[in-house]
Design a protein that fits this description.
alpha+beta, 338 residues
Length: 338
């Protein structure tokens, strides 16, 4: 017997039709947010009025005089249902407050990510050698036009450092320092040294020439230096993270500075600014600053990836969920009288 045909709801055609075009207008999200927020405001006005009538509004709405147990059970059931309706309306009002914020976030995403998406698509086209695609900026030195990574890395003296193909060949410990040495698939080696200040990794090709060196401290900041087959420095990349707290504002930055063999310097700083407001909500701003300095000292600056998240409740933690669950259980216990 074969599988019976599906008789449930059918998905909209645009979810599976490859020829469908989705035209998302950010203004529709903002209009939707305004309309839903208005519904939430109207419901808020009713919370202290009509909603209270569910419990009788101060009048005696008992269904029984208490002469029969069944009548008392009906009163308890009615009271419980009324309490659940009030709780549901309160949750509904909270949802009608949160949904507009989500709609505004979607509008921000659609407005601010078009350029970033276009740049990503160009990068993918270049990676697959699509004619006319431009090579993205800030790529590693060994990624060359018309060559595989293996070919380009071999020509630049780079070792095959895929950790999945490495074989541990020795382990040495000197007090708090431990050194692991691996044999790479291309015949080179790499040494990883763990010390109290962080980690240092050095890669060598099969001729013993140094290919790269990465030093990472306990804060996650790192310096990566690459070399060619003549031992000359090809590039240096420095990554640093900082966090500055002033009042209710936390400004986090991750700065990556890359300098190539010609002295061209590119500094990319990703900013996250989180502001805590007096009502307990948080807003957040994202943006990226890219500064390029060529060998002649000419500097160009560009600001991209801008995104602003309006006021939102603080992120929910595991403790919050546990506290909410305990409150719900306590309310259920009070309603049932157990």
């Amino acid at each position: 017997m074969g599988e019976p045909p599906y008789s449930g709801p059918v998905a909209a055609a645009w979810t599976y039709d490859g020829n469908a075009v989705i035209d998302a207008d950010s203004s529709t999200f903002r209009g939707y947010a305004t309309n839903v927020a208005a519904i939430g405001t109207n419901l808020q006005d009713d919370m202290m009025g009509p909603v209270m009538l569910v419990n009788g509004g101060g009048k005696d709405v008992s269904l029984s005089t208490g002469g029969f147990p069944e009548g008392s059970y009906c009163d308890q059931l009615t009271s419980r249902n009324a309490s659940e309706i009030v709780a549901f309306i309160q949750d509904l009002r909270q949802n009608l407050t949160a949904i507009p914020s989500c709609a505004h976030i979607l509008a921000d995403l659609y407005e601010n990510t078009d350029n970033a998406s276009g740049a990503t698509l160009d990068a993918v086209n270049w990676a697959f050698a699509v004619p006319g695609a431009d090579k993205p900026a800030n790529l590693p030195q060994y990624l060359a036009e018309g060559k595989t990574i293996e070919q380009a890395m071999s020509e630049s003296g780079a070792a095959d450092i895929n950790p999945n193909d490495d074989v541990l060949i020795s382990t040495k410990s000197y007090g708090p320092v431990t050194i692991y040495e691996y044999r790479t698939a291309s015949g080179g080696t790499r040494k990883v040294t763990h010390h109290p200040g962080g980690t240092t990794e050095v890669g060598y090709d099969k001729k013993g020439n140094t290919v790269y060196e990465v030093t990472t401290d306990l804060n996650g900041d790192s310096v990566t230096t690459s070399y060619d087959d003549e031992g000359e420095k090809v590039s240096t990349t420095t990554k640093e993270s900082t966090e500055v707290i002033r009042g209710g504002t936390t400004h986090s930055q991750v700065t990556t500075t890359a300098v190539d063999a010609n002295g061209n310097e590119t500094t990319t700083t990703r900013h996250i600014v989180t502001t805590k407001h007096e009502d307990g909500t948080e807003s957040r701003e994202y943006y990226t600053l890219t500064e390029k300095k060529d060998e002649d000292g000419k500097v160009t600056t560009e600001r991209t990836d801008e995104r602003y998240i309006p006021r939102q409740p603080p992120a929910v933690t595991t403790d919050d969920w546990m506290r909410q669950t305990d409150d719900a259980l306590q309310r259920a216990t009070m309603r049932t009288g157990l």
